[in-house]
Write a structure and sequence with these properties.
The protein has 3 domains: 169 residues, Rossmann fold (3-Layer(aba) Sandwich); 70 residues, Orthogonal Bundle (Helicase, Ruva Protein, domain 3); 188 residues, Peptidase M41 (Methane Monooxygenase Hydroxylase, Chain G, domain 1, Up-down Bundle). The protein is elongated and about 130 Å long. The chain is of the alpha/beta class and 603 residues long. The strands form 4 sheets. Strands 6-8-9-10-7-11 form a 6-stranded mixed sheet, with helices on both faces. Strands 1-4-3-2-5 form a 5-stranded mixed sheet. A 3-stranded antiparallel sheet has the order 13-12-16. Bound molecules: adenosine-5'-diphosphate, magnesium ion and zinc ion. The site of zinc ion has 5 residues, from α17.
């Protein structure tokens, strides 16, 4: 909306300036070359034989005097009803003529005098109407929300399924909708009713909005989009009227796609405990009514996206409304590789780039993260003065997104630095010396802006979907080995291990409460996950007594793992010290370098 107004304003300003310049130019030209004289002077000039020629126009006489050759001044005077003028000119031997009517001039004059002012007034008028209209819309009661939906129409989204990578299942379910929008008759003839709406469900950044646009792009139909929060306003009734309006417009423009992003903003279950919200409920009711009311055979398909499907009102999800659910989940290895490929197309990649490796290192990342990483890598390449993106740019970008930027100027004391080095090597050794763990990719003690003083990056060799109890236990050992190394070498505890401890405890707790991996509780579920697509926070479903026992179980797992970490490192003291001093000296070492030293110290 704002942008449209800005464009209009600048258009008007430009028009005004142009008109102004034209006017000045015309006046200036006529001023400098023409001069008005009175009729008497003109007659005198004829008598004095000073006139070379006369052009007789409708309303004036243009007089070209003789001599003064360099100065091409032209005089003019009005026409008097002077019947003898022609005789006078003829006898004086003056050339005279009346111009043959030029075809162009009347048109130009017409445009200047009629079309231009008209166009300008029209533009000005519509501009004023618009600003005034908005004002009224904002304060009055009647014209509320009278169509804000218009603003979000995209005739062509320009996005196709090719731009969405790694969501094959989602694309497959949506391709039926695309087909329906292409040839609605094929479905209606046989008597099939197509779903009125589909709900895209998944964590943030996985490409739900992008997919909806791609559906419109593939079907080549207009795309009406509104975010759920656009419907909810201060005043009761606004949202409902917007919904009505949106559907009216959509029916007019059928076939088309209506997309309601973040639908949980209006679709929240009405029986929530936190007290009602009249405006939201009205909006939701209107939406339900509209969805029942419209005729899907016309080719209007409603898509909606949310990352909190569990809070949606049941009425929204019943057949005939959003009865289809398209899961847009976090991409797997292959999906991540494809997303990187799609975004890699926009930047110049060096031939050395191996996207599979990057995909391996980014387990859990969503499309938006990956797009961001590719961009960070390109930025880094520019910063380094290169014109192609290399593999190390990409790796650095992954680390930047995960851990923040390098912070080289942070000053740490020698002791702190060596403590961090031992801590990290502790992690790395625990990872390398156990069977089921992921190989070490990189160890660094350069601090990062997001708080880490150093870190050890592990990289899986392939993607895994199932993790065993043993692997989880080994992960905990790796996490606790940092603190174990500090304890063995420096005989003290520091705050540096807080994040490790938090993650280790979380894994141990999940083993007990969710995965059924404890001896005491067996396969009993003690927690359930809420908001699966957002933070995935678990809520306890057991009694307080059980909860206390859970804590004891967790503590036992943690203690066992910590003991294991301690003994693992004590058995490999030589490796620990050698690699740590090497790391302290070089600040960053890669996985193979690490393995070389480890192997050389172990034989
Ligand atoms: P959501 O709506 O699920 O939160 P978006 O659709 O807004 O996520 O995605 C944000 C951006 O992330 C997109 O504009 C796109 O650049 C990138 N992206 C996300 N998922 C994908 C994907 N599957 N393929 C390609 N790019 C993606
Ligand atoms: Mg979105
Ligand atoms: Zn650590």
């Amino acid at each position: 909306m704002l942008q449209k107004q800005k464009r209009l304003v600048s258009y008007i300003v430009v028009t005004l300036i142009i008109t102004f310049i034209i006017n000045i130019a015309i006046t200036w030209i006529s001023r400098s070359t023409r001069q008005e004289i009175d009729y008497g002077t003109f007659l005198t000039m004829i008598q004095d034989n000073q006139v070379e020629s006369v052009k007789i126009e409708d309303d004036r006489l243009l007089i070209t005097p003789k001599e003064n050759g360099s100065d091409k001044k032209v005089y003019y005077t009005g026409t008097l009803n002077d019947p003898q003028l022609v005789d006078k000119l003829h006898t004086a031997g003056v050339k005279f003529s009346t111009p043959v009517k030029d075809v162009q001039w009347p048109i130009v004059t017409f445009i200047l005098t009629w079309i231009l002012p008209f166009a300008m007034f029209y533009l000005l008028g519509s501009f004023i109407m618009k600003t005034l209209g908005n004002r009224i819309g904002g304060t009055g009661a009647m014209s509320f929300g009278k169509s804000n939906a218009k603003v979000y129409i995209e005739k062509k989204t320009g996005v196709t399924f090719n731009d969405v990578a790694g969501q094959e299942e989602a694309k497959e379910s949506l391709s039926e909708i695309v087909d329906f929008l292409h040839k609605p008759s094929r479905y209606t003839e046989i008597g099939a009713k197509l779903p009125k709406g589909a709900l895209l469900v998944g964590p943030p950044g996985t490409g739900k909005t992008l997919l909806a646009k791609a559906v419109a792009g593939e079907a080549n139909v207009p795309f009406f989009s509104l975010s759920g929060s656009n419907f909810v306003e201060m005043f009761v009734g606004v949202g409902a009227s917007r919904v009505r309006d949106l559907f009216q417009q959509a029916e007019k423009n059928a076939p088309c796609i209506v997309f309601i992003d973040e639908i949980d903003a209006i679709g929240k279950s009405r029986d929530s405990k936190l007290g009602g919200n009249d405006e939201r409920e009205q909006t939701l009711n209107q939406l339900l009514a509209e969805m029942d009311g419209f005729d899907s055979s016309k080719g209007v398909v409603i898509l909606a996206a949310t990352n909190r499907p569990e809070i949606l009102d049941k009425a929204l999800l019943r057949p005939g409304r959003f009865d289809r659910r398209v899961i847009v989940d976090k991409p797997d290895l292959k999906g991540r590789q494809e997303i990187l490929k799609v975004h890699g197309k926009n930047v110049k990649l060096d031939s050395s780039v191996n996207l599979r490796e990057i995909a391996l290192a980014t387990a859990g990342a969503v499309g938006a993260d990956l797009a961001n990483m590719v961009n960070e890598a390109a930025l880094r390449a520019v910063r380094m003065g290169r014109d192609v993106v290399r593999q190390d740019d990409l790796f650095e970008a992954v680390e930047t997104v995960i851990a923040g930027k390098e912070k080289k100027d942070r000053i740490m004391t020698e002791e702190e630095k060596s403590l961090v080095a031992f801590h990290e090597v502790g992690h790395a050794l625990a990872a390398a010396l156990q069977k089921e763990t992921q190989p070490v990719h990189k160890i660094t003690i350069i601090p990062r802006t997001m708080g880490a003083l150093g870190y050890t990056m592990q990289m899986p060799e392939k993607e895994k979907f199932l993790i065993s109890k043993e692997e989880l236990a080994e992960q905990i050992v790796v996490l606790l080995a940092g603190r174990a190394a500090e304890e063995i070498i420096f005989k003290k505890a520091t705050t540096g291990a807080s994040n490790d401890i938090e993650r280790a405890t979380q894994i141990a707790r999940q083993m007990v409460t969710i995965y059924g991996m404890s001896d005491k509780f067996g396969v009993m579920g003690l927690e359930s996950i809420q908001n699966r697509y957002l933070d995935g926070r678990p809520i306890q479903t057991c009694s307080t007594e059980t909860s206390a026992e859970v804590d004891r179980e967790v503590l036992q797992i943690i203690n066992n793992c910590y003991e294991k970490a301690l003994s693992l490192l004590k058995d490999n003291m030589e490796s620990l010290c050698k690699i740590s001093s090497h790391l302290l000296h070089k600040e960053t070492i890669m996985g193979d370098e690490f393995m070389d030293i480890l192997n050389s110290t172990r034989v």
